[in-house]
Batch of 3 targets.
Target 1
Amino acid sequence: QVQLVESGGGLVPPGGSLRLSCTASGFTFSAYSWYRQAPGRDRELVASITGDGQLTRYTDSVNGRFTISTDNTKNILYLQMNDLEPEDTAVYFCSAYYKQMTYWGQGTRVSVSS
């Protein structure tokens, strides 16, 4: 059974940091991504990483502030978010890829506000 469980969201002031985690189970996934969806907006890709952790990609708005990584021994995906801005407020979802299928977690809410 495939399961993706996110954690680590919360309320932080502008300039603050959070680390999101996503514990994955069920398969050895080929790649992972973090997406986010702000109120009234479409879900957007934030960052991606290959299953071996060797290749990463970021959307321009988070490049240099966010870091995606994996702990393959524990099947955990991370998103370290630094210098957070109010525009980063959204529900963040992890996704994992296996044999042309995409699996999703339930999301964790991040709010950036003073």
Target 2
Amino acid sequence: QLVESGGGLVQPGGSLKLSCVASGFTFSSYAMSWVRQAPGKGLEWVSSINSGGSNTYYADSVKGRFTISRDIAKNTLYLQMNSLKREDTAVYYCAKSPGDCWGQGTQVAVSS
């Protein structure tokens, strides 16, 4: 099971940190990802991290602004989002590789 939190309403240029708590599987054994869905659009991959946390990957649209990380001891995945833009407005989901487990999503709205 994956449970996201940390979403909310933020002004452009602001920051948010999303969390995703994992349970029911060995968190340290799996790569994890963040995926988002903007209103009226399809799913967009945002970022991934390998099982050990040493390798991270980002979509061009968020590179340099978002940082993915994980705390193995807390079974928690994070997404630090800085310099937020209106186009970052979406429901953000965490997902376990190979995509067989998803959270319920957390809403992020970027608006003035």
Target 3
Amino acid sequence: QVQLVESGGGLVQPGGSLRLSCAASGLPYSYYVMTWYRQAPGKERELVTRIGAIGRDTNYADSVKGRFAISRGDAKNTWNLKMNRLKPDDTAIYYCNIGEYWGQGTQVTVSS
């Protein structure tokens, strides 16, 4: 049974930083394309960033370019999302996704 679990969300002031993590279990292989999405209240889910299977190729939504960085974790089938210079508009539930599998999401709130 495949399971994706996000962690690291919380409340942070504007300009602050957070690091989200996604850990996948039950996957048969070691290399997967992983995508972070987010969904703000009243808005559609949007792609934030994606990393290729071996961690070399990344792309980012324009709204987070230069502030967020996705990477593979040290442990097998783990990924990190470092978020810097956070803005109130970054407030959302953040989800990790691999193919048909989704995590339950972690809440990020940026507020003073």
